[in-house]
Design a protein that fits this description.
mainly alpha
Length: 107
């Protein structure tokens, strides 16, 4: 099935770093309630799993399953291809300007 934008962002974020629901919500800037719905769907689709936190046994860490990792890898590769094509079409000056804007946002 096709992923929503929220599901895609969640997969990409967990692909970068498995995390607790609370920390993931902070990273994605979404409420726990909104995130829980997304996580439940991804878990039901077999794309992520809950694993026990080695430090705090009460806490669960959300992590991608092999199937989830494969989809995250495919999405990342597709984004890289699209960005490369856009950069080539925009030209060097536009790319430099875009980079400057991004770095100013990121601080």
């Amino acid at each position: 099935s096709k992923l929503s934008w929220a599901e895609t962002k969640t997969l990409l974020s967990l692909g970068a770093k498995p995390d607790s629901v609370m920390n993931l919500g902070i990273r994605l800037a979404v409420t726990k309630q909104a995130l829980t719905k997304t996580l439940r769907k991804l878990e039901n689709d077999g794309l992520l799993q809950r694993i026990e936190d080695k430090v705090d046994k009460r806490r669960k860490i959300m992590s991608l399953t092999p199937k989830g990792r494969e989809i995250e890898h495919d999405v990342t590769a597709q984004m890289r291809r699209l960005l490369t094509r856009a950069y080539k079409q925009a030209g060097a000056e536009a790319v430099i300007g875009f980079d400057q804007v991004l770095w100013s946002i990121l601080g």
